[in-house]
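User: I'm curious whether this sequence folds into something compact or stays loose and floppy. Could you predict its structure so I can see for myself?
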Amino acid sequence: MDLFWLQGYAATTPQELAGQMGIGKGSLYNTFGSKHDLFLRALRRYTEMRLEYLADLFAAPGPVGPRLETAMAVLAGVGEHRRGCVMVNAAAELGTVDDEVNRIADELFTRIEGIFRVAIEQGQRSGEFGADRPADISARQLLASVIGLSVLVKSGGRPESCTTVVEGCVGGL
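Assistant: Here's the prediction. I'll summarize afterward.
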């Protein structure tokens, strides 16, 4: 996953993948079928990891706002690295030609939006957020902001600027 995340799908060779895993190229094909099959497995694993992270984050007690800010920053990679989000990268690279990548990306994005919606509804019930805007619309806006921030992070956007965007998005709730 890290190699695909760093280099993208097209730039990552089967030889590099085999070397990264410490196996022969033949073993790579015998185990995973193809580079594409391995890539899809990596995207599914990334999806699982992100959803597990969000479930743990939002299961914690306390105000919702800071947890939404943390979620947005982590999902986009703000201040952590310059890779952006592997799923955003995959969708940008292969979205026009790979329906399976689109399906996996859509599944993750839909689930993140749902998690954001539930968190926003919780914040609205507690009075932390205003209830004048539907939570589903706000959740969709936060997701779109995460996707945009991921691109900014990958292109070298300053962490301070990205953090300001995160704070403004959640503060506007």
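Summary: The CA atoms of residues 63 and 126 lie 9 Å apart. The chain has one domain: 44-171.
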